[in-house]
Amino acid sequence: MLKNPTPQIIARLASLIITALSVGSILLYALFQQAANPIVLVLIAAVLIFTGTYFTTAYYLERYIYRKIKVIYKTIHNQKVPKKDKNKSIDLSTNIIEEVEKEVNEWADNQQKEIEKYKLWAEYRRRFVGDISHELKTPIFNIQGYLHTLLDGAMHNPDTNEAFLRKAVKNVDRLQTIVEDLESISRLESGEMLLELRPFDIKQLAEEVFEEFEIKAARRNISLLFKEGAAQNFQVIADPENIRQVLTNLVHNSIKYGIDNGLTKVGFYDMDRNVLIEVADNGIGIKKEHLPHVFDRFYRVDKSRSRAIGGSGLGLSIVKHIVEAHAQTINVRSTQNLGSTFGFTLRKA
Ligand code: ADP
User: Fold this and answer.
1) Binding site membership of 168 for ligand 1 (Cβ less than 6 Å)
2) Which atom of ligand 1 is the closest one to the Cα of 284?
3) Which tens digits make up the pLDDT trace of 314-324?
4) DSSP 288
């Protein structure tokens, strides 16, 4: 109790000491003066001195502690003094200093966590900006090269002028893809994207995406099909435009990384409350060591191949963001030279 005294105990102790000293002096004085009834005198003095000292000490202690605590609370609670202290009274029978110490420690812990969070964000942003400038550099450099060559005389050479212009345009297209994908990523990461959830037919959406890619697939003679048994139409609850983006990116990848005369198959599987949607191809596949990274932004298994076919390296990262914004999951299975299967879930309507 004395190791960790409350303000009330301190006030009582101080009063006891002062009372004992005063009463001792009064007793000595009474004996010396040969008072008629020294015991009664001493008792009355003891009660008066103890009460007076106790209330005075308690009052000043309370005011002193309150003033100190107010400053601490102002700092840790954004200028606000907690309600219990608003009436300027402190319960002196509690160990108020210990309570404040606990709150200050909690506050310091939270501050530390916030700082760690900001550090991570700063690091993430630094890397992001670095990655972006790195990605933009190549097409800008290429466009610059082709345009300067044309201006330096190549534009009058009918053998090369059109080819150079086409190459410059291809790089402009790549720039546009990167910027559009970056916009999507930044919208997704800033949490600005509000999902407009409504029920829709996922198979019908997949058919629309297949139609979009008919010409691209036909160029490589890749067949876009539904898995056997996927005749059933599944109603899901999700944001249709975002899920269109997911299917678009996955089907596009299945063609980009597919093989000539290959196959892309979309399947639906009933999973109790969810539907599992799979986009499978029999293309080049992905080596095991790359699999954990394919959803990272700007990650490419084969950088030159991805860039050559106009990839931004952000497609799967966008897909993952959208699926996770729906509180669902996405995964990939793949074997090199055999093909890949990307599967994600959506809630059934
Ligand atoms: P990119 O714009 O490069 O296609 P993505 O984020 O869509 O970017 O994909 C990241 C990388 O994952 C690709 O560069 C590619 O190496 C690999 N990848 C994605 N889909 C497939 C697939 N269906 N088959 C094989 N590799 C794939």
Assistant:
1) no
2) 25
3) 999 999 999 99
4) G
